[in-house]
Write a structure and sequence with these properties.
Helix content: 40-55%
Shape: globular
Number of helices: 4
Radius of gyration: 15 Å
Strand order of the largest sheet: 3-2-1-4
Number of strands: 4
Strand content: 15-25%
Distance between the termini: 16 Å
Protein backbone atom coordinates (compact mmCIF):
# COMPACT_ATOMS: atom_id res chain seq x y z
CA UNK A 1 0.00 0.00 0.00
CA UNK A 2 1.17 3.54 -0.66
CA UNK A 3 2.97 5.12 2.28
CA UNK A 4 3.71 8.52 0.73
CA UNK A 5 0.79 10.26 -0.97
CA UNK A 6 0.97 13.50 -2.94
CA UNK A 7 -2.27 15.50 -3.22
CA UNK A 8 -2.11 18.39 -5.69
CA UNK A 9 -4.88 20.92 -4.97
CA UNK A 10 -5.76 23.94 -7.09
CA UNK A 11 -8.21 25.70 -4.80
CA UNK A 12 -11.35 24.25 -6.39
CA UNK A 13 -13.98 22.16 -4.65
CA UNK A 14 -13.61 19.58 -7.43
CA UNK A 15 -9.92 19.08 -6.65
CA UNK A 16 -10.75 18.59 -2.95
CA UNK A 17 -12.82 15.57 -3.97
CA UNK A 18 -9.74 13.40 -3.48
CA UNK A 19 -9.47 14.22 0.23
CA UNK A 20 -12.11 11.73 1.51
CA UNK A 21 -10.33 8.98 -0.42
CA UNK A 22 -6.98 9.96 1.05
CA UNK A 23 -8.50 9.98 4.55
CA UNK A 24 -9.94 6.49 4.05
CA UNK A 25 -6.71 5.12 2.62
CA UNK A 26 -4.41 6.56 5.28
CA UNK A 27 -6.70 5.68 8.17
CA UNK A 28 -6.74 2.07 6.98
CA UNK A 29 -3.08 1.75 6.03
CA UNK A 30 -1.25 4.72 7.58
CA UNK A 31 1.11 6.86 5.58
CA UNK A 32 2.19 10.42 5.01
CA UNK A 33 0.27 12.95 2.93
CA UNK A 34 1.72 16.04 1.27
CA UNK A 35 -0.65 18.70 -0.04
CA UNK A 36 0.73 20.87 -2.84
CA UNK A 37 -0.49 23.93 -4.69
CA UNK A 38 1.31 25.03 -7.83
CA UNK A 39 1.52 28.66 -8.85
CA UNK A 40 2.05 29.35 -12.54
CA UNK A 41 3.48 32.65 -13.73
CA UNK A 42 1.33 34.52 -16.25
CA UNK A 43 2.13 33.74 -19.87
CA UNK A 44 1.41 35.32 -23.22
CA UNK A 45 1.90 38.73 -24.77
CA UNK A 46 0.37 40.62 -21.83
CA UNK A 47 2.14 38.62 -19.13
CA UNK A 48 3.64 40.83 -16.48
CA UNK A 49 4.86 39.44 -13.19
CA UNK A 50 4.54 41.99 -10.40
CA UNK A 51 6.80 40.72 -7.56
CA UNK A 52 4.52 42.12 -4.83
CA UNK A 53 1.43 40.54 -6.39
CA UNK A 54 3.34 37.25 -6.79
CA UNK A 55 4.26 37.20 -3.08
CA UNK A 56 0.65 37.95 -2.12
CA UNK A 57 -0.58 35.11 -4.33
CA UNK A 58 2.04 32.81 -2.85
CA UNK A 59 0.89 33.72 0.69
CA UNK A 60 -2.73 33.06 -0.34
CA UNK A 61 -1.72 29.66 -1.74
CA UNK A 62 0.00 28.74 1.54
CA UNK A 63 -3.02 29.98 3.54
CA UNK A 64 -5.24 27.73 1.39
CA UNK A 65 -3.03 24.72 2.11
CA UNK A 66 -3.02 25.59 5.81
CA UNK A 67 -6.84 25.69 5.72
CA UNK A 68 -6.97 22.28 4.05
CA UNK A 69 -4.54 20.89 6.64
CA UNK A 70 -6.74 22.29 9.43
CA UNK A 71 -9.77 20.56 7.90
CA UNK A 72 -7.84 17.29 7.91
CA UNK A 73 -6.49 17.72 11.47
CA UNK A 74 -9.33 15.74 13.14
CA UNK A 75 -8.24 12.68 11.15
CA UNK A 76 -4.74 12.75 12.66
CA UNK A 77 -2.93 12.31 9.37
CA UNK A 78 0.80 12.75 9.05
CA UNK A 79 0.55 15.84 6.87
CA UNK A 80 2.85 18.39 5.23
CA UNK A 81 2.22 21.05 2.60
CA UNK A 82 4.24 22.82 -0.06
CA UNK A 83 3.68 25.68 -2.50
CA UNK A 84 5.45 25.03 -5.81
CA UNK A 85 6.13 27.45 -8.65
CA UNK A 86 6.17 26.76 -12.38
CA UNK A 87 4.18 24.84 -14.99
CA UNK A 88 1.66 22.81 -13.00
CA UNK A 89 1.98 19.30 -14.41
CA UNK A 90 5.75 19.48 -14.77
CA UNK A 91 6.29 20.73 -11.22
CA UNK A 92 3.98 18.07 -9.73
CA UNK A 93 5.76 15.29 -11.62
CA UNK A 94 9.20 16.62 -10.70
CA UNK A 95 8.23 17.03 -7.04
CA UNK A 96 6.76 13.51 -6.94
CA UNK A 97 9.89 11.96 -8.42
CA UNK A 98 12.33 13.92 -6.25
CA UNK A 99 10.45 13.02 -3.08
CA UNK A 100 9.69 9.35 -3.83
CA UNK A 101 5.90 9.48 -3.56
CA UNK A 102 4.10 6.18 -3.99
CA UNK A 103 0.82 7.71 -5.14
CA UNK A 104 -0.40 10.97 -6.67
CA UNK A 105 -4.05 11.46 -5.69
CA UNK A 106 -5.71 13.44 -8.49
CA UNK A 107 -9.16 14.73 -9.14
CA UNK A 108 -10.24 14.32 -12.74
CA UNK A 109 -11.08 18.03 -12.91
CA UNK A 110 -10.05 21.10 -11.00
CA UNK A 111 -10.30 24.81 -11.72
CA UNK A 112 -11.17 24.18 -15.35
CA UNK A 113 -14.32 22.37 -14.23
CA UNK A 114 -16.20 19.59 -15.91
CA UNK A 115 -15.70 19.93 -19.65
CA UNK A 116 -17.21 16.71 -20.89
CA UNK A 117 -16.23 13.16 -20.05
CA UNK A 118 -12.48 13.61 -20.35
CA UNK A 119 -10.04 14.41 -17.60
CA UNK A 120 -8.30 17.77 -17.38
CA UNK A 121 -5.14 18.50 -19.35
CA UNK A 122 -3.04 18.77 -16.20
CA UNK A 123 -4.30 15.45 -14.84
CA UNK A 124 -3.74 13.84 -18.25
CA UNK A 125 -0.11 15.03 -18.36
CA UNK A 126 0.55 13.78 -14.84
CA UNK A 127 -1.03 10.39 -15.52
CA UNK A 128 1.00 9.93 -18.71
CA UNK A 129 4.36 10.99 -17.28
CA UNK A 130 4.42 10.28 -13.54
CA UNK A 131 5.06 6.53 -13.75
Amino acid sequence: MPQRILAPLDGSSLACGVLPHIIALTRAEGGQVTLVRVMEAPTGANAHLDPVDWQLRKAEAQAYLDEMAARLAPYQLELTSEVLEGPTAERIIEFAHHNDFDLIALSSHGQSGLTGWTISGVAQKIIQRAR
